[in-house]
Automatic annotation (TrEMBL):
GO terms for cellular component: cytoplasm. InterPro entries: HAD-like_sf, HAD-SF_hydro_IIA, HAD_sf. It comes from freshwater metagenome. PANTHER family: 4-NITROPHENYLPHOSPHATASE-RELATED, HALOACID DEHALOGENASE-LIKE HYDROLASE DOMAIN-CONTAINING PROTEIN 2. SUPFAM superfamilies: HAD-like (SSF56784). One of its GO terms (molecular function) is phosphatase activity. Signal peptide: none annotated. This is Unannotated protein.
Length: 281
């Protein structure tokens, strides 16, 4: 929110997958783009629906790609899911919650740091967890779907980190967390509460970080664009991820009406953002 005290400040809310990199390949010019925006005094918040990696791993990857970062610069769907579980614990008189987790080390670490007792589906035994929390997991299999669905049908809360159907990698896309979550939803007969973009848990965590003028930069209108809309701020769409001028299966198309800016990549977007920065003063 722009107030009298922060009117000259700027916040860039920047997606990672499809904006700074595709899988393990950096998107050309993205590191230099972040450096230019930081030099123009943009506060940069890196936001991701990908819950797989820990903050330490993400920061190391950013640094390796020429973008120095600290954990305090990050906001992921894993941290949003952890905040949801903390809220559940508080509502239950600060009772320690147990969660069956289908996801990577980033999701497990976020939940443990939030005081949640986590375990994998194969270690569930006869105990019904307080929640099933599902995110991106390349080791996802039939047994995991079965255990998760059984727990949900027995009364466990169903939380999904996000519902992104695909994930951009060099040369195309692979199934995202949304594809895995859909299997659990069908098998359990229950729809999940969603932690990540563009849902309320991430909207509120993002709102707390914004100072002055703010813009969301992302490659997916259905999540990044919707997040910007919920926050009441500008959205800049880049075509370096899942969205293209000519839609492809598994991707997204440019919305009609289009967002304020549509650029080939982050580097091409920078001049427009610097123009806004100069107008703020």
């Amino acid at each position: 929110m722009v107030t009298e005290s922060n009117i000259s400040k700027r916040t860039l809310i920047c997606d990672l997958d499809g904006v700074l990199w595709r899988g393990d390949e950096a998107i050309s010019g993205s590191a230099a783009a972040i450096a230019k925006l930081r030099a123009a005094e943009f506060k940069v918040i890196f936001i991701s629906n990908n819950s797989y990696s820990t903050p330490e791993t993400i920061c190391a990857k950013l640094t390796d790609f020429g973008v120095p970062a600290q954990s305090s610069d990050l906001l992921t769907s894993a941290s949003a899911a952890a905040a949801m579980m903390q809220g559940q614990s508080s509502a239950q008189g600060h009772k320690k919650c147990r969660a069956m987790v289908l996801g990577g080390p980033g999701l497990r670490q976020a939940l443990v740091d939030a005081g949640v007792d986590v375990f994998e589906p194969k270690k569930a035994g006869a105990v019904v967890p307080d929640a099933v929390v599902a995110g991106f997991d390349p080791e996802f299999d039939f047994a995991a779907v079965d255990e998760a669905a059984r727990a949900i049908r027995s009364g466990a809360r169903f939380i999904a980190t996000n519902r992104d159907p695909t994930y951009p990698v060099p040369g195309g896309v692979v199934p995202g967390a949304g594809a895995l979550v859909a299997a659990i939803a069908v098998a359990s007969g229950c729809e999940p509460e969603v932690a990540g973009k563009p849902e309320a848990p991430t909207v509120e965590l993002t709102r707390q970080r914004i100072e002055g003028y703010a813009v969301v930069v992302g490659d997916r209108p259905s999540t990044d664009g919707a997040l910007a809309e919920s926050l009441g701020i500008d959205f800049a769409l880049v075509l370096s991820g899942v969205t293209s001028a000519i839609p492809v299966l598994g991707g997204e198309s440019i919305p009609d009406p289009a967002p304020r800016w549509v650029s080939e990549d982050l580097a091409a977007l920078v001049p427009h953002l610097l123009e806004i920065s100069d107008s703020i003063g």
